[in-house]
Amino acid sequence: MTGSVRLRSIAIAATAAFLAACAVGPDYRAPDAPKVGIYTEKPRPERTETAPVRGGEAQHFELGAQISAEWWTLFGSPELDALMRTALSGHPTLAAAQAALLQAEENLNAQYAVLYPSVDAGLSARRQRISGASFGNSGAISPFNLYNASVNVSYAIDVAGGARRELEALQASIDFQRFQLEATYLSLTANIATAAFREASLREQIRATRDIVDSQERQAQLVEKQFDLGALSRADVLAQRAQLAQTRANLPPLEKALAQTRNQLAVLVGKFPDEARLPELDLSAFQLPQNLPLSLPSDLVRQRPDIRAAETVLRQTNARIGVAQALMFPQLTLNGSYGVASTSYPGLFDRGNLIWNIGASLLQPIFHAGQLQARKRGAQAAYDQAFAQYQQTVLGAFQNVADVLFALEFDAVALKAQAEAEAAARESLDMTNKQLQFGSANYLALFNAQRQYEQARIGLVQAQAARYADTAALFQALGGGWWQREGQDRLTAKAAN
């Protein structure tokens, strides 16, 4: 190889490397994490209040602690674990999200073809007649057969990098669908946990209401007997009956809500209600997690699937700016073909009938009435929109965490107050019953004590369930620990690039 040829080869290789490395448009830069020290306006207590009832344990917040990918196991319920396994084994929403991810991956695989030459083989046979005027004479040319076999090669060189920017946008689409899958996973597990706690709460409320009904029925029988003996008035009997009827009237709405919750739970695990065979959940079967992880605010943007999905849209729209800008640059295409053409089939194998061509075309846009500039401005506006939506998603996420922290703090306070109210109402009812036996209280006081105790007991059950539900909401608000699952570290690192 001579020196000039060697230099020419080096120059070509350097030019190719330069074109491969350069792509017009802005390179993507991830937004900085918010400079936020705490989630709430003021620092919150490191632990919650305690109450002397089930679910009244203090909860400690561990800043920066790791979140388990299977956070629901912290509630210590084999029934809840089984529901989660059933749902995650093949729920339609997960299957749909996985199919969307596969579609995005295949779209990227298809687009990779633009970086390589396309090669096509063609074989044709036709009978035709042409005019002699095409060759400068007026004579007629008899019809003839024409056979053609050729291989055609075309290669559009990505000079400005528009094709590579499009690949970048499609990669961002894959990451978007991946985080959508994680968001679906998180939403499904959180909804199952919430529905399970709601069912347990409703079942406990029904049980408490029936206990109160039984107590009031016994009291009503006693009132009837005293009325028969002339010790009470008809008004006392009617008041006790009204109280009993009112308590009974509370049962149908609770039973309706329980049935609907079980239907919802069946669908959440991917089953029809008649085939779900759901367990009967009870609040006593759940343990309240006492050590709660709390992510650092700077880590939240990397852990929430919705924030990560919003960032991929930002990355995608940034790449689209480069795609739009590349249309303003020259477009270079290489073409070539090699084959044979003959008026008879045996002639296809004649070397004299070989045909070939090779060429290149260069297209430089000059005037498109502002179309290309408008496309670029539109792409930039799409990026600005995506950035604003990303900021809104981050703000919403931080509000979500702050709301849950307040909920957990005041859930504990509410449960303590409700436990005190239930204990006081129970003691008041017991005392009123005793006073009634000795004639120092009337039935109006008894009815008031019964009503207060009923409300206090139902309120206590609701306050207990709220602590479980809001604890699950905290795990959801912090991202659910999806990055802790096997294989997710690789996916996270890939999506961050």
Notes on the structure:
With about 500 residues, this protein is of the alpha+beta class. The protein folds into 2 domains: about 20-115 and about 160-330 and about 375-495, Up-down Bundle (Outer membrane efflux proteins (OEP)), CATH 1.20.1600; about 115-155 and about 330-365, Outer membrane efflux proteins (OEP), CATH 2.20.200.10. It has 11 helices and 6 strands. It has helices spanning about 5-20, 80-90, 90-110, 160-230, 235-250, 250-270, 295-305, 305-325, 370-435, 445-475, 490-495; strands at about 60-65, 120-130, 145-155, 290-295, 330-340, 355-365. The strands form 2 sheets. It has a 4-stranded antiparallel beta sheet with strand order 2-3-5-6, with no helix packed on it. α4 (about 160-230) packs antiparallel against α8 and α8 (about 305-325) packs antiparallel against α9 (about 370-435). The chain is elongated, with a radius of gyration of 37 Å. The two termini are about 40 Å apart. Mean pLDDT is about 90; it is low at about 1-5, about 5-20 and about 490-495.
Secondary structure elements and pairings:
Layout: H1 3-21, E1 60-63, H2 78-88, H3 92-111, E2 118-128, E3 144-157, H4 162-228, H5 234-249, H6 251-268, E4 291-294, H7 297-303, H8 305-326, E5 331-342, E6 354-363, H9 371-437, H10 443-477, H11 488-496
Parallel strand pairs: 1-4
Antiparallel strand pairs: 2-3, 3-5, 5-6
Write a compact overview of the structure shown.
The protein is built from eleven helices and six strands. With 497 residues, it is an alpha+beta fold.
